[in-house]
Amino acid sequence: MTEYRKPLPRPDQDSRPFWKSCQAHQMALQQCGGCGRFRFPPRLVCPHCLSEEASWTPVGGGGRVYVSLVMYRPPNSAWEGDVPYNLSMVELEEGVRLWSNVVGCDPETVQIGDRVQLQYDDVTPEYTLPRFRRVQE
User: Fold this and answer.
1) Domains in the chain, ordered, with CATH?
2) Preceding amide of 7 cis, omega within 30
3) How far apart are the C-alpha atoms of 46 and 57, rounded to whole Å?
4) d(CA 8, CA 18)
5) Please, which residues bridge with residue 133 across strands?
6) Which of 23, 47, 54, 86 could make an SS bond with 107 (beta carbons 3.0 to 4.6 A apart)?
7) pLDDT digit string (tens) for 9-27?
């Protein structure tokens, strides 16, 4: 494995279980004990009902592209070899949205509404990043 040069997450007390679940290739999200809704990013209080009760629940990883951008200019030298690349907000079937990449296709062909499925990118032995691939309807 070559050295990973891009920024990595900095897990804190709230987000550490999320990153550990990605490392185990079984993404889990906080599910509110009050209203049952999923929430992301992880936080102490539910933004919907203000409950502090939550459990980490595995999710299926299916979703749809909610926003899609093509990056033509690298933000710094670590991305120079990647441009153009896709940056997408994906809405998971559980209702949460997260920023990631749709990979395995021409970045300019990713469309809002495309169905996607989670895959895992083990970028270092300690960090696994969630990525997505398009799936056929």
Assistant:
1) 10-59 (no CATH), 60-137 (2.40.50)
2) no
3) 15
4) 14
5) 117
6) 86
7) 999 999 999 999 999 999 9
pLDDT band at 3 (very low <50, low <70, confident <90, very high): confident
Task: Using only the alpha carbons of the chain, give its radius of gyration.
Answer: 16
The model's pLDDT over 77-109, given as tens digits with 9 standing for 90+, comes to: 999 999 999 999 999 999 999 999 999 999 999
Beta strands in 23-127 (DSSP E): 28-32, 38-39, 54-58, 62-71, 85-92, 97-100, 115-122
* CA–CA distance, 71 with 87 (Å, rounded to integer): 7
What predicted TM-score, i.e. pTM, was given to this entire model? 0.92
DSSP states of 19-51:
HHHHHTT--EEEEETTT--EESS--SS-TTT--
Cα–Cα distance between 59 and 57 in angstroms, integer? 6
Mean pLDDT, the chain, as a whole number? 96
List residues bridging with 89 in a β-sheet: 67, 99
